[in-house]
Amino acid sequence: MGTFVVEGGRPLSGTIEPQGAKNEALQILCAVLLTAEPVEITNVPDIVDINKLLQILEALGVRIQKKSDNHYVFQADQINLDYLKSDDFKSDGRKIRGSIMLVGPLLTRFGKGYIPRPGGDKIGRRRVDTHFDGLIKLGADFTYDRENHFYSVESDRLKGAYLLLDEASVTGTANLVMAAVLAEGTTTIYNAAANPIYNNSVVCSTEWVPKSLALDQID
């Protein structure tokens, strides 16, 4: 196991430009699936989880143009839904927990989505009930493949509802907001997550065709 040795007692000076926040970027990247229009995003962090999600989006049919190291243009106008049923997606989606946020925009725009067993860091109890309960109340039907630990989610048309979340889950709230923006009627979410990183992703989702977004580091 690697270690870092920090030697103190020296004055610090200079400047750094922090990368965008990972959790915010994961939410906003999933939100590009809400529209067939081009979406431009800057300050995308160059880290493992983000790069894995970019690979999933590309395999899903999202056209990705890299304009510079952290500047991308996305267009989700030729989505390949068959990829979501493939062994590749079952494997790729398990590698990052953020892949669960793909189901909200896919379900509301295309009427179907798929969820492999979520991966991610093992940091205690990490429930996904908030996602499932909220989507069911919006009108989604779940089918579970026990052998492959794989969920299929379908809906003819999501409909707005009053949602009381059993926990203020950031990813759960983001997923439900993305699912609700194209649903019929009004959705009201109680006990929603409320922090700056999440709020930026809500703005992107509710404006529905974001032309230019910036992922700014937030104190």
- Global shape: globular
Number of helices: 7
Beta-strand share of residues: 15-25%
Total count of strands? 9
Structural class: alpha/beta
What is CATH's topology name?
UDP-n-acetylglucosamine1-carboxyvinyl-transferase, Chain
Tell me the CATH superfamily. Enolpyruvate transferase domain
State the gist of this model.
By secondary structure, this protein is of the alpha/beta class. It contains 7 helices and 9 strands; from the N terminus they run αβαββααβαβββαβαβ.
How would you characterize the overall build of this protein?
This protein is an alpha/beta fold. The protein has one domain (22-205): UDP-n-acetylglucosamine1-carboxyvinyl-transferase, Chain (Alpha-beta prism). The protein is 32% helix and 18% strand.
Key terms:
219 residues, alpha/beta, UDP-n-acetylglucosamine1-carboxyvinyl-transferase, Chain, four-stranded mixed β-sheet, three-stranded antiparallel β-sheet, 32% helix
Tell me the layout of helices and strands.
Elements (H helix, E strand, L loop, with lengths): L21 H10 L7 E4 L5 H12 L3 E6 L2 E5 L11 H8 L8 H8 L1 E5 L12 H9 L3 E5 L4 E5 L7 E3 L5 H11 L7 E3 L5 H12 L4 E3 L5
Parallel strand pairs: 1-9, 7-8
Antiparallel strand pairs: 1-3, 2-3, 4-6, 5-6
Helix pairs in contact: 1-2, 1-7, 4-6, 5-6, 6-7
